[in-house]
What we know:
CATH topology of the largest domain: Rossmann fold
Oligomer: single chain
CATH class of the largest domain: Alpha Beta
Amino acid sequence: MEDQAEKLREIMKRKKEGTGTAKTASAAKTNVKAADKPRIITVTSGKGGVGKTNLSVNMALAFARIGKKVIVMDADLGLANVNVMLNMIPKYNLYHVIKKQKTIREILVETEYGISIVAGASGFSQIANLGEEDRKDFIKELDSLSNADIIIIDTSAGVSSNVLDFIAAADDAVIITTPEPTAITDAYGIIKIIATEYDSLNMGLKLVVNRAKGAAEAKSVADRMINISGQFLNLKVDYLGFIYDDTSVPHAVIRQKPFMVVDPKCKASICVQHIVERMDRNKHGESHGFGAMLRRFFGHSPETI
C-alpha cells in the first residue's frame, strides 16, 4: 500500500509540474502578445496652424531614436501634409485604401529617417467624414500595422467625427496648443467636446504647449487649461511638456525636413526628445492595440466586426 501511495504521490507531483509548466508557457505567450501590441498615439488640435503635424513627425523620429519601430499615419482626410513635410510624393495614399483599391500595407512607405508613413488623402474632401461602414472597413485595415511599436495618428484640426473617433481609440491623445488666446480657446473647445462625447472613457489626454517663449509661459498656459478642465469638465488632462518658439522650426519646414534632422541640438528638438522620453517612461497602462481600438470605435468586440 505504501508503494502504491508513493506512486500516486509521484504521479500527482508530475501532473502539478506539468500544469505549472503549461500555465507558465501560457502566461509567457500572453506577455509576449501584450508586448507586441502597438501603442497608439493620436495628435490633434482645436485649430490648424499650431504645429500638430510637425509634432507628429518629430515625435516619431524621437521614438525611433530610442529603438522603437514607428509609423506615422496622416489621418487628415482632406488636407494631408505629412508627406509634404518630408518632401515625399507617395504614389498611393489613404484614398486608395478607403476606396478599396489598395491595402494599407501596400501604401506604407519607408522614409530615409527610420520611420514609415501612411500618406493621407490630400484634396479628397468628400471623404473627410466617413460613413460608419467605411470607418469600420478602414479601422479593420489598420490591424495590419500591428507589428509597429508606436503608431502616431496625425488627425485633422477641429472636431469632425473622424477626429473624435481617433481620439477615443488612442492609448494617448495628445492635444497641442500655443499661448495664443485663439489657440487656447479652440484647444479647450475640443477638450470640452471630448468630455461631453466620451465621458465614460479614461482618455489619457495630454497637453503640449508649442511655440512658448519659455517654461514659465508654457506652464501658465497648461495650468489654466488643466484647472479649467478639471473644475468644469471633471476631466483629467496631463501636462506633457512644451516646445520652444525656435527659428530652426520654420527653417526646417521650408527645407521640407524634420527639425530634429536639420538641427538635432536646437531647443525645439531637445524639447521633443524630452516629451518622448517622458511618454516612454510613463506608459498609459497596458496598450491593448487595435483590438481595443476597434472596441472603442464601435462599442463591441472586434470578433463581431
